[in-house]
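Okay, any thoughts on this one?
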Amino acid sequence: MADSNSSSAGVREGKYEAAERFTLAEAPGLRVRQLGLAVGQCVPWHYHSDITDTLFCMKGPIRVKLRSPAEVVVLQPGETLAIPPGRPHLVAGEDNQACQFMAVQGVGIYDYVAADE
């Protein structure tokens, strides 16, 4: 399902569900989205071939697991993390709790490539 410009429970895109998903801005080579994850939800392991995924924690904390190299980063509200192209990552609320974050995705061609668990 395409993203939503209004809040709705269980917005699904690709292989994962998010409590809310809003596109705040979109232009060639750049996309800004706000996502909310409910208790137990996550953005599963994936990477982007061409873009940097910059996450800004709005409500959290959020836990970002990364590979190559393996790393775990916990973001508190107001903190950011830039994830370079090709680096697999998983995003969830700390201890699987609800969270909300903004993703600035660019500059380049957006894709979502699922990575093995």
